[in-house]
User: Fold LHFPL tetraspan subfamily member 3 protein from Caerostris extrusa.
Amino acid sequence: MTVDPKYEYASESSLQHANYMKNSKAIGVLWGVFTICFAIIVVVVFIQPHWLGDTQESRGTGHFGLWQACRMVQDGQDVICEGKLTDFNSIPTPAFRAATVFIGLSVVIILLCICCMVLFFVFHSSTVFHICGWMQVFCGE
Assistant:
């Protein structure tokens, strides 16, 4: 007795479809995890006043971040800081002002992207992948 090839092909096709769906869900979960990690990084960069700096022993000790720059006073005891997120004109240079605006927009877009991941329950997964993908492209530029 021989097996008809069309039935064998149909069962193999359903097996491939099940494997594809399983892998697509795993990719969706992985994408969500990486999106949350990226959101944490962007929010920390935006919120932290200063995150790059020198040690106490280096010459010209100071530190700066996206919207605040601090330097030591000559006596070495006090730190003078310039820039406040609430006062946009106090940010030291126009380049840092522009970077603050772009990172702020990036924070808003990536948080919206995380909220859009709920759409997996409503829409087809490829639609949600396209929406979130384009949001992340604009977030990263």
About this structure: The chain has a mean pLDDT of 82. The beta strands are 52-53, 62-64, 69-72, 79-82. DSSP finds three helices and four strands in the chain.
